[in-house]
UniProtKB/TrEMBL annotation:
Organism domain of life: Eukaryota
GO MF entries: peptidase activity
Membrane topology of this protein: Multi-pass membrane protein
Entry protein name: Signal peptidase complex subunit 2
Compartments reported by the entry: Endoplasmic reticulum membrane
Amino acid sequence: PSKEKQDKPVKIDKWDTGALKNALDDGAKKVLVEINGYKESHKLMDGRLLICTIAVGFALFALLWDYLYPFPLSRNVLLTCAISYFILMGILTLYLTYVEKGVFLVALEQDRAMMEPDNEWRLSSSLRKYDDTYHLTVQFFDGKTNEKRSLTVSRRIDNYFDENGIFCFDLFKPVIDKLKQDLSNEKKKE
C-alpha cells in the first residue's frame, strides 16, 4: 500500500503557489533522499524547534504561575515571561531569516568508506505569489575541504506540471540530477 501511495501522481491546484512550491520541494527532496540515498539532517530545523520550545516554556510557566498566584501577585512574573516570549519570537524571526534562509532540506552524503567527513547538500527555493518562475538553489559543502559551492536554477513552473496540475516528476528529476552532477564535477576539477 505504501508503494502505491508513492507512485500516485501528485495533483495540485495550479493557482496555489504554496502547493506548487511544496510539490517541487518534495520532488527535489525525493531525488536526494529516496533515490540517491542521502541521509536527511534535521539540525537546522531543530534550532527552530528549540527556540519555540523555550518560548512555549515561558508561556506555560506564566500560565501556571498566574494560576497559583492570581494576578496582582503574579504581575512581575507575567511581565517577565511575556517580554521573554516576544524577545524569543524576534530571535526566531532572525534565525529563520539569516540562518535557515528558506532551506527545506539538509542532506548528508556519507563517504562509503566512512573515512572522510560527510558532504552536505542544502536545498532552498522560492516561488513568489503570482509568479511562474521557481528558483531552486543547491549548496554543496565539501566535508573534506570545507569548500562551499552553489548553483541556482530558475525555471517556469509549467515545465514541471501538466495542464491538469499533475506534477511531472520525470521532467523535474533530470534538473536536480544535473545540478548535483555540475556541483560534483566542479569538485573533481579542482
